[in-house]
């Protein structure tokens, strides 16, 4: 038993060694913390066999999706959705913690209300070498996501828009497009009430059977099941 535990620990150190340089490469392009970032890359790498595109809604400076592109390669399409104007206002459904966080413009994690110019994400994607496979879709999710049309399924859908409405519009329009066996990550499931409420409401509204699994400290994931 002890040998098994030691082997598991060694394997973890080895995989960390592989992913740590990717985190370093995109350090200034992401607000996802090192441990979560690496665990997210490890998780995504398990879905290389699923054909389809990779989408992130809520990219900020693009560092997370660029790291994912390093892992998943340039034979796929990448879609980056963001206002590039920061977060919309948190509402009551997002909880008092979210409303208070947004009101405190001096806190360390405020990041100018998560505002970043699109040029940052373009630079990160350039470093990943997937510029010719990438679409930058600028605007509010309410306007852009329902318009999204693609002939291929989504292999990996990563939602990082923090609030209830931002998460729900993405689930409503993109969850049905995820391939069977594909991966859906919600970065804020354990961080913000609005995100967890949106996921629960969506799954319940559609009587979806997917299980919610903890991916890393703030995030959860689901594996898309067969559509009824
Ligand atoms: C927490 S940041 C994303 C962090 C990023 N994934 C990273 O690697 O660091 C949230 C992002 O979601 C975007 N966002 C949230 N709600 C949005 C909405 N309704 N429409 C467009 N963009 C939105 C914000 O502009 C912001 O860039």
Give a structural overview.
- The chain is an alpha/beta fold.
- The protein has a single domain, classed as 3-Layer(aba) Sandwich (Rossmann fold), CATH 3.40.50.
- Helices cover 43% and strands 16% of the residues.
- The chain contains nine helices and seven strands.
- It has helices at residues 2-25, 34-45, 63-72, 96-103, 111-114, 118-128, 141-144, 164-174, 193-205; strands spanning 53-57, 78-82, 134-138, 154-159, 178-186, 213-214, 220-223.
- The chain has a seven-stranded mixed β-sheet, sandwiched between helices.
- α3 links the parallel β1 (53-57) and β2.
- α3 (63-72) runs parallel beside α6.
- It is globular and about 50 Å long.
- The model has no long low-confidence stretch (mean pLDDT 95).
- Residues 30-32, 58-60, 63-64, 82-83, 86-88, 114, 116, 140-141, 160-162, 166 line the site of S-adenosylmethionine.
| Spatial gap, N to C terminus | 42 Å
How many helices does DSSP assign? 9
Q: Mean pLDDT, nearest integer?
A: 95
> Which topology does CATH recognise?
Rossmann fold
Annotated CATH architecture: 3-Layer(aba) Sandwich
User: CATH first level: which class?
Assistant: Alpha Beta
> Which ligands, by name, code or SMILES, are bound?
S-adenosylmethionine
Keywords:
228 residues, alpha/beta, Rossmann fold, seven-stranded mixed sheet, 43% helix
């Amino acid at each position: 038993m002890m040998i098994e535990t030691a082997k598991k620990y060694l394997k973890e150190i080895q995989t960390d060694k592989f992913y740590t340089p990717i985190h370093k490469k995109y350090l200034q392009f992401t607000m996802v913390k090192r441990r979560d970032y690496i665990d997210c890359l490890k998780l995504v790498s398990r879905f290389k066999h699923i054909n389809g595109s990779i989408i992130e809604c809520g990219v900020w400076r693009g560092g997370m999706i660029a790291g994912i592109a390093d892992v998943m390669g340039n034979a796929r399409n990448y879609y980056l959705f963001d206002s590039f104007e920061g977060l919309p206002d948190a509402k009551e459904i997002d909880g008092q913690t979210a409303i208070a966080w947004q009101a405190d413009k001096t806190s360390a994690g405020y990041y100018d209300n998560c505002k970043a110019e699109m040029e940052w994400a373009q630079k990160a994607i350039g470093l990943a070498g997937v510029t010719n496979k990438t679409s930058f879709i600028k605007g509010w999710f309410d306007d852009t996501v329902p318009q999204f049309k693609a002939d291929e399924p989504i292999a990996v859908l990563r939602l990082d828009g923090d609030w209830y409405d931002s998460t729900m519009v993405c689930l409503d329009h993109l969850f049905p497009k995820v391939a069977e066996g594909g991966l859906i990550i919600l970065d804020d499931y354990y961080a913000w009430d609005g995100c967890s409420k949106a996921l629960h409401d969506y799954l319940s509204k559609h009587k979806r059977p997917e299980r919610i699994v903890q991916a890393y400290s703030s995030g959860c994931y689901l594996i898309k099941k067969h559509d009824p």
